[in-house]
């Protein structure tokens, strides 16, 4: 099997030795470029593998160049956007094509976007400010949060690159992103640092990395937001999105044109489970947590034109030391050692597998299916009374049809009980108690629909509907038959929302937005449950969104 994988890999890489230049990721919060590339792929102007984000800036530049060959088929808005984005990513495109930069050694300031840049034949350095202000208000409270900091990116020679961002986040009133709350995408602080007032929160967030690249791949030490799994609202394979803590990792990716790609990383997670045997007498408020590690890989092939099939696996493990076998990128981690050796070595493990299928074979259409499973057991398939712990997200988007400069989106997620969880809390699929899978967690479903209108360059209007539900709460206990818990036997919590949002991008990473959202979040009384209706509402929903609310949001961002 491994020989077959290596043979496929080598054949796909042949002839692509100059495709990859330095690896500098473009952050997933830059929604404008990601939505535009998706639109270009749906219209079949480019071929795009969209299962893993972020994309590198070099890849973005190459895809924009690819789209330029079909500019005569684009709408006026698309041509304007293509020109803006090609200008923003032009230096990465030149490096990818092996062209030397024509700038001297002196640096210069740019106003749009605001940046200090220095380029010569061996190095490129960019320093940009980070400044964001957001406001959310309804009858419950007024919440505002501010982000301020700086980001630096550098490409050195032909192979090395480094990047980093340091920002402070200040938030007034309630935190909307703490673990367990089923609200996604609000951003802001996710915890409190230091001695602060109960209504004021402040954290310092740093991300970054250093990478070495060669003709068809790159290896990096990084701490960055990641999204795995095709989606338009929320992924279900790996969701380390803004508003959630990142973790340090060693990563590797390989790309053989549009036909093959491979992603791998080994990460250091925070279990938040205290080791009782270790204490700090001089600092009683400090704790030592159990070690927790995460290893994952994902293979993607394009067997037919514009059809991408991805498959991978992962393992969360806890041990006194890292396991060297999990640093072999192409492995099926569950099969590395038998269970008796696992027990004798003192290592605890929780394994996952996932599949993603993405098709853009129908013009103007993207169809996708993303499937996740942890602790998968074939024996459960033969027993109708037992369930595997799985989550599936499926959906699609129509772009520029039947009306040009519009899109229609539909996405549905169904997650069975106990998915993303484990009866041993040290090895749950979570980092700092934030689930790394679908944000709704286990025993849940969600229907998401949206319509987008893009009347001219930079302006987007989006109308959204969302219906999210949670079923019975099943606490994990040793000795219980977790795989017989029924799916959605009772609805314990439900959140229905309608929203309209306007966003205007002044440049690639500068914009303003405004949103009006009508939401109805409520809990339900269910006989035999640990929580009553109010308890479920408090468990899954911040007080800011309790009951029927009409929330106005607006903000400005420079990233």
Folded structure, characterized:
This protein has an 18-stranded antiparallel beta barrel, surrounded by four helices. The N terminus is likely disordered. With 559 residues, it is mostly beta strands. The chain starts with a helix and ends with a strand. The protein has one domain: Porin (Beta Barrel).
Q: Topology of this structure?
A:
Layout: H1 2-13, H2 31-42, E1 52-53, H3 57-68, H4 76-88, H5 90-96, E2 108-111, E3 114-119, E4 123-137, E5 142-156, E6 160-172, E7 200-214, E8 217-223, E9 226-228, E10 238-240, E11 248-256, E12 260-274, E13 289-304, E14 307-318, H6 339-344, E15 348-359, E16 365-374, E17 389-399, E18 406-415, E19 430-431, E20 434-435, E21 444-456, E22 459-470, E23 493-507, E24 510-523, H7 533-540, E25 547-558
Antiparallel strand pairs: 1-9, 2-3, 3-4, 4-5, 4-25, 5-6, 6-7, 7-8, 8-11, 9-10, 11-12, 12-13, 13-14, 14-15, 15-16, 16-17, 17-18, 18-21, 19-20, 21-22, 22-23, 23-24, 24-25
């Amino acid at each position: 099997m491994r020989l077959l994988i290596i043979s496929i890999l080598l054949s796909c890489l042949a002839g692509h030795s100059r495709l990859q230049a330095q690896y500098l990721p473009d952050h997933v919060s830059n929604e404008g470029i990601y939505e535009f590339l998706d639109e270009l792929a749906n219209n079949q102007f480019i071929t795009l593998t969209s299962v893993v984000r972020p994309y590198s800036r070099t890849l973005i530049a190459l895809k924009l160049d690819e789209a330029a060959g079909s500019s005569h088929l684009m709408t006026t808005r698309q041509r304007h956007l293509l020109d803006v984005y090609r200008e923003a990513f032009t230096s990465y495109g030149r490096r990818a094509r092996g062209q030397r930069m024509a700038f001297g050694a002196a640096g210069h300031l740019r106003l749009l976007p605001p940046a200090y840049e220095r380029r010569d034949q061996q190095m490129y350095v960019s320093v940009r400010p980070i400044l964001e202000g957001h406001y959310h208000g309804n009858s419950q409270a007024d919440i505002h949060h501010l982000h301020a900091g700086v980001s630096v990116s550098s490409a050195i020679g032909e192979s090395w690159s480094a990047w980093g961002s340091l920002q402070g986040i200040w938030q007034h009133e309630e935190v909307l992103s703490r673990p367990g709350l089923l609200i996604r995408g609000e951003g802001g602080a996710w915890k409190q640092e230091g001695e602060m007032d109960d209504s004021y929160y402040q954290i310092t967030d740093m991300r970054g990395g250093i990478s070495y690249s060669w003709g068809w791949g790159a290896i990096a030490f990084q701490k960055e937001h990641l999204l795995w799994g095709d989606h338009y609202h929320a992924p279900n394979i790996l969701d380390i999105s803004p508003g959630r803590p990142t973790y340090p990792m060693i990563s590797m990716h390989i790309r053989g044109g549009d036909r093959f790609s491979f992603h791998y990383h080994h990460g250091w997670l925070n279990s938040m489970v205290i080791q009782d045997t270790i204490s700090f007498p001089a600092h009683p408020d400090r704790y030592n947590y159990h070690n927790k590690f995460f290893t994952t890989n994902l293979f993607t092939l394009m067997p037919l034109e514009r059809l991408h099939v991805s498959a991978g696996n992962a393992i969360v493990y806890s041990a006194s030391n890292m396991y060297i076998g999990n640093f072999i990128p192409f492995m099926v981690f569950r099969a590395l050692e038998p269970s008796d050796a696992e027990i004798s070595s003192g290592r605890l493990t929780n394994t996952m597998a996932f599949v993603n299928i993405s098709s853009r074979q129908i013009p103007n259409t993207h169809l996708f299916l993303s499937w996740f499973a942890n602790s998968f057991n074939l024996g459960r398939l033969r027993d109708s009374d037992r369930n595997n712990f799985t989550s599936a997200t499926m959906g699609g988007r129509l772009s520029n049809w039947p009306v040009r400069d519009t899109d229609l989106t539909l996405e549905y997620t169904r997650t069975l009980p106990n998915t993303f969880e484990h009866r041993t809390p040290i090895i749950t699929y979570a980092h700092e108690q934030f689930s790394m899978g679908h944000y709704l967690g286990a025993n849940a479903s969600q229907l998401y629909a949206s319509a987008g209108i893009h009347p001219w360059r930079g302006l987007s209007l989006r109308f959204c509907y969302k219906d999210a539900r949670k079923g019975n709460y099943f606490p994990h206990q040793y000795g219980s038959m977790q795989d017989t818990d029924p799916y959605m036997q009772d609805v314990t919590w439900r959140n229905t929302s309608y929203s309209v949002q306007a966003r205007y991008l002044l440049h690639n990473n500068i914009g303003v937005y405004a949103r009006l959202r009508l939401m109805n979040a409520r809990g339900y009384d269910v006989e035999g449950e640990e929580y009553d209706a109010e308890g479920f509402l408090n468990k899954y929903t911040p007080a800011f969104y309790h009951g029927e609310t009409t929330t106005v949001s607006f903000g400005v961002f420079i990233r």
